[in-house]
Write a structure and sequence with these properties.
By secondary structure, this protein is an alpha+beta fold. The protein contains five helices and five strands, in the order H-H-E-E-E-E-H-H-E-H. The longest helix has about 30 residues.
């Protein structure tokens, strides 16, 4: 039996994809349910995530809060400049040293978000961090406060999340400039 060929001499796709003793047409028909299922799964995943797209940006202010001022190296004495961001949240930016062993050296900024105690009277502050690496504590508290901390604690405590250095709205991590990164990755020295 002779196999049909395309003008360039290749076998047609449906014959190449058919297994031994299989007819190509039934196999092609069996692909439709799988493609339909994959498409439906993608639509369901995207529609399930659609409400989250509306939350993105809801908890940020048009301009970042002004970082608090630190005199000398007493970072614990700084008072956060809380500003409204979102319906119930407040945002602030605080300073920290880049290297705690050189507290007078370069400083970085850390973004914070706070939900004040729902009762109106705070008994203290609970700091929440989702772990990581790379997870935003600001987004975690702002978008998932009920998953982060139960309602009884929210009633009596301020709930604060922060973005560690290099995450979200905090100071990014910059280890190498472009030339040094090229050298590191590709061994490309500038001549």
């Amino acid at each position: 039996m002779t196999q049909p060929h395309t003008p360039d001499g290749a076998l047609p796709l449906e014959l190449v994809s058919a297994g031994p003793g299989e007819d190509a047409a039934p196999r092609r028909k069996r692909r439709w349910p799988a493609l339909l299922a994959a498409g439906l799964a993608a639509v369901l995943v995207m529609s399930g995530c659609a409400p989250l797209f509306g939350l993105i940006g809801q908890f940020t202010t048009p301009s970042a809060p002004t970082p608090s001022e630190v005199d000398g190296t007493d970072f614990g004495a700084q008072i956060a400049n809380w500003q409204a961001c979102g319906a119930t949240m407040q945002c602030a930016v605080v300073q920290a040293p880049l290297d705690w062993d050189d507290a007078e050296g370069e400083r970085i900024h850390l973004a914070l978000v706070k939900q004040p105690a729902l009762s109106g009277t705070s008994q203290g502050t609970i700091f929440v961090n989702p772990g990581g690496p790379g997870a935003s504590g600001v987004d975690y508290v702002a978008q998932s406060i009920d998953s982060a901390v139960g309602e009884p604690l929210q009633q009596h405590f301020d709930i604060v999340g922060w973005d560690p250095r290099g995450v979200g709205s905090s100071t990014p991590v910059v280890c190498l400039d472009d030339a040094a990164m090229d050298e590191y990755l590709f061994g490309l020295s500038a001549a």
